[in-house]
Structures are given as C-alpha cells and as structure tokens.
Amino acid sequence: MSEPLLNVMKIMLLAGLYLFFVRVLWSVFSELRDPRTVARKRRDLDPVPASSAHTAESRPAVAGSSARRGQSAALAVVEPMALGQLRMSDTGMVFPLGTEITLGRANTNGIVVDDTYVSTVHARIFNTNGTYFFEDLASRNGSALNGEAIVVITALVAGDLIQLGGTTMEFS
C-alpha cells in the first residue's frame, strides 16, 4: 500500500475513535441527567411569597394551597389494591400529611402501600410555602397524577388523584 493511502486510513481511524468517545460521553451524560430537574411543571397557582414564615397549618388557604381553612392536607384512599395490612376495606382511609411524607412498600414510609407494583420508597409528598408537591422517586413502575404519568415534581391541588400501582388516593 502506498504511504498516502495509509495516512488517510490513520486519519479515518482517529476520527472514528473520537466519534465513538463523543457518543459514549453523550450516553453517560444522558443517563446521569435527572429528567425531573430539567423542567419544573407547575399548574396555574397564585404565587405564595417565599418570605412567608407561616406554616400551612397556621395560615388560611390560598388558591393552590392544599389545606382548607382549619384543616390540614390529607390523602384519602379511593381505590386500593392493597394498603398496609388491610385490603379492600381500606377505601375511605384518610392519612394526614405533614411537611413531608414518603409512600411505598417499606415499613419505614409514612404511608405503606402493600402492592407488588409499588417500589420500596416509591414517591414523596412535601410542603413548600404552603403548597404541596408530589415527586416520584425514580420508581420502577412510575406514578400517575390524574391519569398522567409523573416525571417532574408537580404541585398538588385539592381533588387530584394519585395512583401508585393499583392504589388510588385523592389529595384534599
């Protein structure tokens, strides 16, 4: 083979190697990036000032706040597949929410959902400035809010239906 042809082949090999490394780095970056932090999907809520030092329990409800006057936020079981040690009779059970609560199969969660389609620590609900938010914690089977899959942290409003596996709960 001639020397110019070998030089062209070397350059093509180096270019291919560089393209391969760029593709590997792109794949690693894409896998490490958390899609829930890329965009924050928020519903149309009246803004709550960040400087407010009141807790959700001590201040009256505003639009977008999950708590009604004099009541704290809660999850009511609408349609259970299995919840804790109880079964279908759990419909109507109400779980009060604090500032943060986790949902999942493990006994360490605030709300234990005994369902094979629910992860050990499946999701969490937390309160920020009087507004409750729902976050799926990278569960294997995912969560749904009002029938739509959740991939970003989402604000909750009264009447929202949260589904984990075969269990549906209403936020109020």
Describe the structure.
The chain is an alpha+beta fold. The chain is 20% helix and 26% strand. It has 2 helices and 11 strands; from the N terminus they run ααβββββββββββ. The strands form 2 sheets. It has a 6-stranded antiparallel beta sheet with strand order 2-1-11-10-7-8, with no helix packed on it. The chain has a 5-stranded mixed beta sheet with strand order 4-3-5-6-9, with no helix packed on it. Strand 5 and strand 6 form a beta hairpin. The protein starts with a helix and ends with a strand.
Distance between termini? 78 Å
How many distinct beta strands? 11
Radius of gyration: 24 Å
Biggest pleated-sheet summary:
6 strands, antiparallel
Number of helices: 2
Name the descriptors.
six-stranded antiparallel β-sheet; five-stranded mixed β-sheet; 26% strand; 172 residues; elongated; 2 helices; alpha+beta
Task: Give a summary of the structure in a few sentences.
With 172 residues, this protein is an alpha+beta fold. It contains 2 helices and 11 strands.
